[in-house]
Specification:
Layout: H1 8-11, H2 15-26, H3 30-36, H4 63-84, E1 94-98, H5 104-113, E2 116-121, H6 124-137, E3 143-147, E4 160-166, H7 174-184, E5 185-198, H8 207-216, H9 223-231, E6 235-242, H10 244-254, H11 264-273, E7 276-285
Helix pairs in contact: 4-5, 7-9, 8-11, 10-11
Length: 286
């Protein structure tokens, strides 16, 4: 797949976008890289499902390795949950992994559906890394990553049967984002996101949610904002799944690992107190 690089000035249009791109260009967090080293699928999201408690038992010298493998299993399980909600995808379809990170979910989508998958990120280093992984796996004719802005991708209108964001919507304006997706999706196409969002019922951002924002240089949206922006852009929810309880075990296990960064406590606090939700939203383009 031939890549046409975009000039940074075209992609990074605000000081905030430049700051986010710089953060991810410089990011070398072992919690992403060590987990990806397990099987070569590099994700930039969290996990879902119960962990196997036996990983905390057994020889101490291999304990951390067992935890890392189990955390990676949980994050790949999360990606499978997202892909489960994309609906009927055929080999001739085209999918967009928007805010693709190092590209793991795109690889999984191609493996499952056999279709063309495009990824976009404002991090040039992530795009380069992801394309190298696609070449290494021999799928670069079907999976390609682009240095582009998810708010203005440059792809043709109606080009995609499915689009997803996996924990990346907190970096952009949702109305602008869903306007672009409404343009990009074919009629009847499906959009899926998994995201953390703060709970409108409890008021504004809690202290724990604000700490998450600060840690990741992001701007977590209220839950209601997603549904307002979807409705304004001809995207009608078909499934809404609360994954909050399903993601807590991942964070509990991560807190036990050598890869803990200190952000585990704010996540666990926010989820347990109800000020933060982990949602999957699937919506059809009408």
């Amino acid at each position: 797949m031939t890549m046409t690089p975009d000039a940074p000035a075209r992609v990074l249009r605000t000081a905030y976008q430049q700051a986010v791109a710089e953060y991810w260009n410089n990011e070398k967090d072992p919690v992403n890289l060590r987990l990806g080293d397990v099987d070569g699928l590099y994700h930039h999201h969290y996990g879902t499902g119960d962990y196997d408690p036996s990983v905390l038992e057994g020889p101490e010298e291999t304990r951390d390795e067992r935890i890392i493998e189990e955390m990676h299993r949980l994050e790949s399980a999360q990606a499978d949950v997202l892909l489960d909600h994309l609906g009927a995808v055929e080999p001739g379809h085209r999918l967009l992994d928007s805010g693709c990170g190092r590209g793991g979910t795109s690889i999984m989508a191609n493996q499952r559906f056999g279709c063309q998958v495009e990824g976009v990120s404002i991090s040039e280093s992530q795009v380069d890394f992801a394309n190298a992984q696609a070449r290494k796996r021999g799928v670069d004719a079907k999976v390609g990553y682009h240095f582009r802005n998810m708010l203005d991708t440059g792809f043709p209108s109606g080009a995609f049967q499915g689009i997803w964001n996996n924990e990346s919507t907190m970096y952009v304006d949702l109305f602008q984002l869903f306007s672009e997706y409404s343009r990009l999706l074919a009629h009847g196409g499906r959009y899926v996101c998994i995201t953390g969002c703060y709970n409108d019922v409890t008021g504004g951002r809690s202290k724990a949610v604000s700490r998450i924002d600060e840690h990741y240089t992001c701007n977590i949206h209220p839950r209601s904002a997603y549904f307002k922006a979807l409705a304004a852009n001809n995207l009608v929810p078909i499934n809404v799944v609360d994954l909050t309880a399903a993601t807590i075990p991942y964070w509990e296990l991560r807190a036990e690992s050598s890869l803990a960064t200190g952000i585990e406590e704010p996540f666990l606090t926010a989820y347990r107190e109800g000020s933060f939700h982990y949602l999957l939203i699937a919506a059809d383009r009408i």
